[in-house]
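Usage example:
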Amino acid sequence: MKASTILVALAGQPNCGKSTVFNALTGARQHVANYPGVTVDKMTGWYKHNGNKVEVVDLPGTYSLTSYSPEERVSRDFIIHEKPTVAVNVMDASNLKRCLYLTFQLLEMDIPVVLNLNMMDVAENRGMAIDVEKLSKRLGIRVAPTVMKSGKGKKGLLDTIADVSGEKETIKGALIDYGEMEPFIRDILARLSAETSLAERYPLRWMAIKLMEGDSEAQRLIRKNHPDAHSFIEFVEKMRADFEARHDERPEMHIANRRYQAADDIARSCLKLPASAKRPLSDKLDSIVCHRFLGPAFMVGVIWLLYYLSIVQGYNITNYTWPLLAKLRSLTEALTPEPGLIEVPLIRAFALWLVDSVNALLNYIPIFFILFGLIAILEDSGYMPRMAFIMDRLFSRFGLHGQSTLPMVLGGIYVGGCAVPGVMSCKGIPDERSRLATILIIPMLNCLAKVPLYVLLINIYFAAHKAWAMFFISTISLLLVLPVSKILVLTALKKKETAPFVMEMPPYHIPTLRGVLGRAVERVWLFVRKITTIVVAVAVVVFALLQFPGISEERMAHYEGQKEKAVAAFSKKVKGTTPYAEQLTGDSLMDLVLYWDDYKDAKMLTKGKEAMAALNAQYEKKNPVFLKIVQPGKDKVAKKVNRAFKELFKARMGILREMRKERIDNSFLGRLGKWLEPATRWAGFNWRVNVALLSAFAAKESSVATLGALYEQEEEGEALEQRMARGEVGFTPLHALALMVFMVLYPPCLAASIAVKLQAGSVKWMIFSMTYPMVLGLAFSTLVFSLGSALGLSGLQAMFAFYGLALAFTVVLGLVGNTAEYA
Amino acid sequence: MTLDQLKPGSEGRIKSLSARDKLGQRLIDMGVYPGLRLRVIRNAPLEDPMEVELDGYFVSLRHDEARFVEVEPA
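Running the assembly step on the lines above writes:
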C-alpha cells in the first residue's frame, strides 16, 4: 500500500457517541473551523495508521440528510463534493433500527461506508444481542463493533477503515428498493444521464431520489447544470404529482416509509430484543426532572449550582491566579522606560494599557474553565433537552427557543452573568431565527460588569430604597429582553429560517472526565485565541481615543511647576537628615518612588512572618537607606523623612490625577462626549456621563473607573459616591434611573461583540447588535427622564411606572401570535 | 383526532401526517411516521411541549406541531 492521505468522514445521528469516536481516533490532533457561510463547526483531526496519514472530519450529528437544516446540508455537501475515501457511520448500537435510517441514505450517496456499532455495552446492558456478521451481510458493508468510551474495538475499526480505503472497487452496499416508486426513479435517472453531465460528479440514483423527495438543493443543482432546467423541473414536479395521485401517498413519505421498513426488516433479523425495551433509569429520572413542580425546582437548583460553582467559586480561584497576571504587569513595567515623577513615557502607558486590557479578560479564565466544564457535563448527561422541554413554552412566546435557556442563564438572567459564554453557548439552538434573537438579546442581560455602576448609583440616589432598586434592576432586564426579542423576530429577523422544535429526549448518560475536561480546555482556548487577539486590536484604538491629542505644552509647564513646588517642599523638610537627604536628589527621588511602589506591591503578595523577613532582607540588599524610609520603625529621623515623602507622594498622585482628567477632557473621546451632549441631554446625561458610557464599550467595568477619574478626589479616601454626589449637584434620582436603564440596554462590550460576530457569522449582525441597543437605550432613558421630569415624578415613582409599562408591554407582546407556517 | 389532543398516558397509532416540507420531513426523520404506535408520556410543566414514546424512542414536540399528526386512539 502506498503512503497517501486517506480522508475519513464520521457521520451519525446525534447522541450516538460520535464525538467520543472522533476523540478516540484523533486525540489532541484536532482543529475547529467553520464551514463556509454557516455557523456550523467543522471539526477535523488526523491520525497515523500503518504509516498512512488519515484525516478525519467529524460531520455534525444529523438524523437525516435532507436540505432543511444547515447541519444536514453541510454534511451531505461534504460527502458529495469532497468525496471522502471512507464514510464511517457511527451508530448507537442500542438504537439500531432508527440509526439505519441514516445508513441507507449514506449508502445511496455511493461512497464506501463502514458501519461503526458504537456503545455496544449499552446495548448489552439492555439485554440486546446483535448479530454483527449477519448485519454486515445484509447491508453489504463492513461492520466494526466498539465501546469507544473505553477504547474497546478501536483497533478493529482502524483496520477496517484501512482495509476499505485500500480497496480499488467501491463496495456497493445494500440499496433500498422503493417499490412502486422505482419506475419513476428510473425515468428521472434516464433523463438525467441523457441530458446532463452530472454523472461525472454526482451519484445519479441519489440525485433522482432526492428530486422525487422534492429536495430544494437537488433542484438547485439541476438549475445550475441542466441546459433546460425549467422544463426538467416541471417534469420532476409532474412525476411527483403523478406518484401521489396514483398511490395516494406523498413521495417523500413513501421514501421515508420504505427506508424505515428496510431498517425494521434488518433490525428484526439481526437483533434479539429483551422482553421489555424500557429505559428504567432514564424514565425514573424524567418523572422527577420533567415533573410539573419538581422539574422547575430541580432546574432552578441546577442553575443556582452553575452560578455558584463557576461565578462564586471561580471568582475565588482568581484570587490565586491574579498574582500571576500581576506579575505579567510588573514584568511589563520593568521592561518599559521608567516614568518620571509626573511624566509617563507614551510607550510605557501604552504597554501597560494593553496588558491591563488583556489581563482583565484573562482573569476570567478560571470562571470560564469551570463554566465550560459544567456546560459539557450538562450537554453530555442529556439534561439540556430537558431544560429546553421545561422552558420552551415561555420562551417560544417571545420568539426564543427552549434551548435559549442555558445561554440566558449564562448571560445573567437575574444578576451576574457574562455575555461571552452566553453568546457562545447559542450554538446548539437549531432554529436559526431563535438563535439569532437569543444572540442579539443576551448582551442586554445583567452581566457581572454592569453591577458596579448599579451599585454606585443605587447607593447615592436610592439609598433609602436599596432593596426595591436592586429588585428593579435585577428583573427589569428580562422584561426588556423578552419584548425586544419578540419585536426583533417580527421585524429584523422575520425572514430568517426557522426549524420545528421536534427534539429527541435521549437517555441520560454519565459524562466522562476526559470528554468534559477536553471540551472545557478546547473552549477556553478558543476564547483566549479569538477574543484576546481582537481585544488587543481594539484596545489600541480606545487607547488612542483616550490619549490624544493630550495635554498642551503650556498646561504641561503648569504641571511641571506644581511638581517643582512639591519637590522643593520635600527637599526643605528633609534637609539635614543624614544619610537620607544626600540620597534623595534628582533622579534618585524617582528611584525611591519606584522602590516604594515595588515594596508595597511585594508586601501585598507576601504572607507569613518568615516570608516578610525574607522580603525585607531582599529589599535591604537592594537599598538599605530606602528600606529605612519605607519602614522607619522607631527611628525618628527616618520617620520624618517617611512623612515628608508620603506628602510628596500624595502631591504627585494629585497632579497625575488632574493630568489624567485633563487628558480625558481633551481627548477625542471627551470631545465626542461633549459633542453628544445635546442629544443625550434629554436622557439626563451630561458629557462626563457620556464619556464614561463610551469608555464602557471596552469593558463595562470601565464606566465606574472612568467616572472615578472624572470626578477628582479632593480628600484622601473619599469614596466615589461622595465625590459624584458633590460633583453633580443637579443630578437627581431620575438622572440615575435613566442612566441605569441605559446601562441595562447597553451594547455588548468588546469581547461580547466578537462573540456575537463568531456566533451570528457576520460583521453585519455584530454592528446591528451594537447599534440597536444604543438607540433603544437612548430612547428609553429619554422617556424615563423627559417624561419623568415633565410629570414631576420622583426617581422611585418613575421606576415603578417604567417597570409597570415594561411588564404590561411584555404581557401584551407575549399574547401576539407567532407566525409558523407548517401546513 | 390529532396527536395534540391525546392526554398523557394514552396510546394511539399514527394514521397520517398532514405537515409538509420542513416539519413533515423533520417528523419523519425523527421517527414519527404512519403505522407506528405511540404513547404520550407527559406534557411539560407549562403544558407545552409534549413528550411521546415511539417504539422505545422518546421525542418531544410542541402541540402546534403535534396538530399535524393524525392519530387513531387505542
